[in-house]
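INFO  loader      accepted 1 record
INFO  loader      residues=359
INFO  predictor   begin
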Amino acid sequence: MVVGDFTQSVETVVIGSGPGGYVAAIRAAQLGQEVVLVEKDLIGGICLNWGCIPSKAMIEVSGLKHHLSIANDMGLITKDVSVDMAKMHEWKDGVVSKLRKGVETLLSKNGVDVVRGSASFSEPGHLLVDTKEGLQRLKYKDVIIATGSRPIELPQMPFSDENIIDSNDAVSLQDVPERMLVVGAGSVGLELGMVYAKLGSEVTIIEMQENLLPWLEPEMARVLSKSLKKSGINLMLGSKVTDMKKLKDTAEVTYSNGDNEKNIQVDKILVAVGRHPNTEDIGLEELGLKTTDRGFIEVNEKMQTALEHVYAIGDLIAGPMLAHRASHMGKVAAEAISGEPAAFDNLGIPGVIFSDPEI
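INFO  predictor   done
INFO  writer      dumping tokens
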């Protein structure tokens, strides 16, 4: 790899190594393309390192603890079941590390050249990558943008506050909070809220919508609502956080429910109100590529943007932010660039909420 002021020419560049990016890079290489994959952090992206995999590992641990804790009622004497958070994280991180090394091996075996650094477009056909060794300049024929998304931050609840966490932080807490407030009852809020309830937290979930998971069948929401209450979770629907005050080691949150305002004191606040596509600070304006008012990139069925040689996949495209959706989009983009017949069918996308019960 040449660094400094020199330019390397390559057929296809993929920006981002999440479940969309690494699949796109591998598939493009399998189809004979010379591929460079640019990643500024850990291979595997948010899903593998801070999202899907670690959260499901914690769901497994909390579920096992829950089943053991109720086994006494069935005549199976288990005594007190406690959680060693350090040991749990050691096991969880081991799972993540093993999977990440697997992805790195697949990239290497398929001849994908990985460049570590932050990428931004300088002009059409040219990409600058800020690496530890210096500025790397890439000249490409085609590019696949797979920069993923990040948690949305609420103005009154900045992530810089030590009491306020996002989903990334939630899978790394070193202690089980005595009281946790979850803002947002989407799949992330429900999954992690149930995890910490089963680990021993007193959990309250606040949701602006009047109905739980309004995009699902009402019967499913009713079953899940009963399960949440059975787990000891306080579910506040049709409620909105209006204020937060920082106390010594805790936080006091004010929320409204109709005309009523109530206060709740908690140790941690998990903000899970959605995610925002990472389309800023990568130089899209240098390409003349515009985003929607919500920051998404518009593409056709081949994942091609308004620019012929620029493709975008995954969370950058409006719709459900799911890992397997991103992977399939990456496959489609790689095949389209290679001249293969490929298109993304948006009619049916399977999805799972790893709640209890699962949906």
